[in-house]
Amino acid sequence: MPRAYTRAVSPRLADCELTHLERMPIDPTRADRQHSAYERALEEAGYGIVRLPELPDHPDGAFVEDTALLLDDHAVILRPGAASRASETISTAEGLGAHFELHRVADGHVDGGDVLRIDQTLYVGLSKRTDAAGIAALTDIVRPLGFEVVQARLKDCLHLKTGATLAGPDQTGSPVLLYNAASVDPAQFAGVEPIAVDPLEPAAANCLRVGARLILPSGNPRTAQRLRERGFSVVEVDVSELQKAEAGVTCMSLIAH
Hints:
The chain has a single domain, classed as L-arginine/glycine Amidinotransferase, Chain A (5-stranded Propeller). The protein is built from 6 helices and 15 strands. The protein has helices at 28-44, 88-96, 132-142, 160-163, 221-229, 240-243, and strands at 3-6, 48-51, 68-71, 74-77, 101-104, 115-118, 121-125, 148-152, 164-169, 175-179, 193-196, 208-210, 213-217, 233-237, 254-256. β3 (68-71) and β4 form a beta hairpin. It is globular and about 45 Å long.
């Protein structure tokens, strides 16, 4: 059974790091309920949930994507760009060590939200959380594993995958890149057919393919309809409270196929 690694929502979620959003009141209890519904959506897609060790004192701890990169039988432990998140990787490594061969980025900074895998190419966004030194260190790790790293450009968004994610094959078998035209130029990605989200629905650019389903944050009806018309089985999940912490549907899990 494929697995999804997650971590419980911290009761201190309201103290999360913010880069692009104004701080708003966040209800950790409501966020936890939404996180549980997200996990159920993963289970209904055929994935077993594996909870990483809890980190109640780490406000951003539930956003596990930024701490590691899963590449088949390998797990690369990353170096998040926010100083407050550095020690989260210790817990992630403990949780993944029994299942993967571990590698560690030792220089610079890389957030997993900036890494978009398309086949054997890793597009890595240069952002406020990911720097050139981190991209170089990641390149050295993954090249022997058979992956190429390409630096990607983004603007006005937290991570590369805030503005573009791989929706997977449509009903014709064409691999589709879902993107927000205000944040990411799709021309920099090879081998995909780009589909822009509705301009009024930028959050829809962050989707998560799990098995035959596509998880999309609720509140994006036009984009959801575009995807359904292309044959995608879209599951909409309410993550509105988590979005106040700049979360997306990819950031709350590490997907192992």
